Amino acid sequence: MNSKRDHQFKRWIEIFVVTLRLGLTSFGGPIAHLGYFHEEYVQRRKWLDEQSYLDLVALSQFLPGPASSQTGIGIGVMRGGIVGGIVAFLGFSLPSVIALMIFASLLTTFGLEDSVAIRGLQIVAVAVVSKAVLSMAKKSTTTLSTKLIALFALLITLLWQTAYAQIIAILLAGIIGLFLFKNNTQEKNLSSSNFPISHRMGYICLTLFFSLLVLLPILSRTFDLSWLTLFDSFYRSGSLVFGGGHVVLPLLEQEIVTAGWMSQQEFLTGFGATQAVPGPLFTFVAYIGTIINGWIGGFLSFLAIYLPAILLIIGVLPFWEVLRNKSQVKGALIGVNASVVGILISALYTPIWTNAVQTNVDFALVAILFSMLVFLKIPSWSAVIVGIIGGLILF
C-alpha cells in the first residue's frame, strides 16, 4: 500500500515538474500551447496516443473556457487522477499568475512588452504552432472530405471573427462528420484512454458548475460584498466564453473598465504584460484582481475564472471515453478533429502570425526555427532560447 502511494506521489511530482516547465516556456497563447503539449505529451513522453490527444483537444474546444488549460487538465487526469489534473493545472498556470502579479508594473515602467526578446518569443510561437498544425493535419485530414471540412472551419473562423465562430464551426463539422463518415467509422479504431474518475464525481462536478452559475449572481446582488461581486463576474466570464484567452480579454475590458474597477491605461498595461509572459492568457485576471484588491483579489480572480473550466472538464471526462467510442460519435469526431486543424490554421494566421511576422527578417527567423523543430527535431525549450537570442541579434 505504501509502495503504491509512493508511486502515485512520485507521478504527481513528475506531472508538476513537466507542466511547470511548460508553464515557464510556453509562449504564444492557447493555440501555441496545444503545439507545445503535442510535442511534450504525445511525441516525447508518450503519455497518450495521437488519437486520444486529438479527441481531448476536440472536447476542450467544444467546452466553454480555456481550451489549452482544459486539455492540460485532461492529460493530468489521465496520468494521475483528479489530483494529477489539479497538479497539471497549477504547474502550467502559476508561473504566469505570479509573474503578472509581481512584474506587471515593471513591464509597464521599463517597456519590456515591446522588447526585442519578446519579439523573438512571438516568432518562436509561430514556428511551434506551424509544426503542430503540420503534425495534426497529417493525422486528421487524410482524405479529400476531411481536408474540405478543415477548409470550411478555416473560412468560418478566419472570415467571421466572433466568439461563436469556433463553436459553430465545430458543431457543423460534427454534424457533417456524423452523416458523411457513418459507414466507414470502423476504420477509425480509437484507442482506450484512462480517465480514473467515477460517474458520481462527474455528476457532482457538473451539478456544482450549473449551481454556481445560477446562485452566484443571486448572492452577489443579495450581499453587498466586493469580493463576491468580483468572483461572480469572473466565474460567469469563465463559464460562458468560447474561444479561449484571445476572446475573453476584450470581453473583460468591456466589463471591468466600464464598471469602473480599473482605468483603461491600467487594463492595457496588464494586457501588454499578459502577452509578454508564458502560460495561459486567462491568467490576465490575476493582474486585474491584484489591481482591484491586492494579492488576495489576484488569487481569488484566478480561482473564479478557472473554476468552471475545471468543473466542466472533470465532469465530462468520465462519460467521454464511452461516448467517443460509440459508432454514432466516431463519425462526428472525424469531422470535429478535421475542423480543429482548420481552426488551428486560422489562429496561426491571426493573431499569431499577423502579430509576429512583419518583416523579411521575421519570416527568416520563423523559417530557421521551423526547420530546427521539424528537421533537426530540437525540443521546444531550445527553440525558445534560440528565439530570444535571435531577437536580441536581429532586431
From TrEMBL:
**Compartments in which it is found:** Cell membrane
User: Which parts of the chain span the membrane according to its record?
Assistant: 12-36, 82-104, 116-136, 148-181, 201-219, 267-289, 295-320, 332-352, 364-394
What broad class describes the main subcellular location of this protein? membrane
Q: Which UniProt keywords apply?
A: Cell membrane, Membrane, Transmembrane, Transmembrane helix
Coiled-coil regions listed: none
Topology within the bilayer: Multi-pass membrane protein
Question: Which Pfam families did the record assign?
Answer: Chromate_transp (PF02417)
Q: Name one GO cellular component term.
A: plasma membrane
Protein's UniProt name? Putative chromate transporter
